[in-house]
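DM from R.C. (forwarded with permission)

"hey, sorry to bug you on a friday — could you get me a structure for this? deadline for the figure draft is monday and I only need the backbone to look sensible"
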Amino acid sequence: MGDGIPHAGEKVLAGRVALVTGGSRGIGLAIARRLGSLGARLAICARHADGLDQAAKVLAGEGVATLAVVADVTRADDVASMVAKVETELGPLDILVNNVGMGIFGPFHERSETEWDTVLDTNLKSVFLVSRTVAPGMIRRRRGNIVNISSLAGKNAFSNGGLYCASKWGLMGLTYCMAEELRAHGVRVSVICPGSVATDFSPHAGRNPATLLQAEDVAHAVAAMVTEAPTSFMSEINLRPLQKS
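My reply, with the result:
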């Protein structure tokens, strides 16, 4: 279609197994939909069964068969069980999208230790745990893609964003170290940094939703990363809305 990026109906990921964390809604669901439409054997995970089941039904209605796995990706035991289930039922993982994320905002000195742990565990520790679990298999097979969904908040500071920015700045550092360690083994590690996206993660009060990024824009970037030629990799994509207001 002229942009060099595969579109739905082009099964360029046929035979490849993909796992999307936080795949039951928003950006994660859009990414799952795009990877499935490109032919990937798809798994999604989230902590709540109801949301997962509904997402799997939506995807099935669009012709995308999906393995839905309930897991808390901040817990090592859950991660190990989830990856084992995916690889037993679908096959060895070729694509991992670390999408799960959350935010707690407000002055840093008014936030609790529990809130700090919740944000850092969800946005950063989870990426370490899931990536650590799938990386050895990718290294053995000398192929794979790991895509981490960060944020422009991982590059820019803003008032009341201390916990969230800390987690996303940390994710940027982790991603680049992972990339350097795995590229010699044929495994690509990349990061996508979206700006304001029209999801229920943040209401973006006062903004016209039509001027925000859409979840599908992030999915489009993921598709570009996992379908590029094997001799290169996009290490980072920054996504911004075209209009500022």
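R.C.: lifesaver. The chain has a mean pLDDT of 94.
me: no worries. The beta strands are 17-21, 41-46, 66-70, 95-98, 144-149, 187-194, 236-239.
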